[in-house]
Amino acid sequence: MHILSGDIGGTKTTLALFESNGTASRVLARKTFSSRQHDSLEGVLRQFLTKDMPAQDVACFGLAGPIHDGICLTTNLPWRVEAKNLSGEFGIPQVFLINDLEANAWSIAQLPEKDLHTLHPGKPDAAGNRSIVSAGTGLGEAGLFWDG
Questions:
Q1: Predicted TM-score (pTM) of this structure
Q2: Structural domain includes residue 77
Q3: Separation of alpha carbons 41 and 97, rounded Å
Q4: CATH assignment at residue 16
Q5: Which residues of 51-83 are buried (b: 16+ CB within 10 A; e: fewer)?
Q6: DSSP 106
Q7: Count of domains in the chain?
Q8: Which of the four, 6, 118, 138, 141, has the lowest number of CB atoms within 10 Å?
Q9: How many other CB atoms sit within 10 Å of the CB of residue 105?
């Protein structure tokens, strides 16, 4: 399976193409672009995706801005990003848009110990809510709510 992913922010856009067998993934290509030098995510994707890359099975983009019905009006860029349009133009069967801080919140559990810095040690088997606050071009927050 080939997965296209992107971190779309007001300052930079980082795209990566992964090959996954369901348990492990490897990066096939990765590149960072200046967001403000492009008029759309489609423009960045046209530059990133080359003819020698395999077709993508699924794509997920974390965007700085609210997502409603597969559409994002980015917060710090004049971009309108629509999952349906990306799917059609690039022939990707499934395209998902999520808020960039939501993407960060989901990925916290995947980080290796070396990438974490403990501010206040807690209980090793604690269950409960998680939150993330991120300062970048804007200030974002996300939460994961534990429901048992």
A1: 0.82
A2: yes
A3: 12
A4: 3.30.420.40
A5: eeeeebebbebbbbbebeeeebebbebebebbb
A6: H
A7: 1
A8: 118
A9: 20
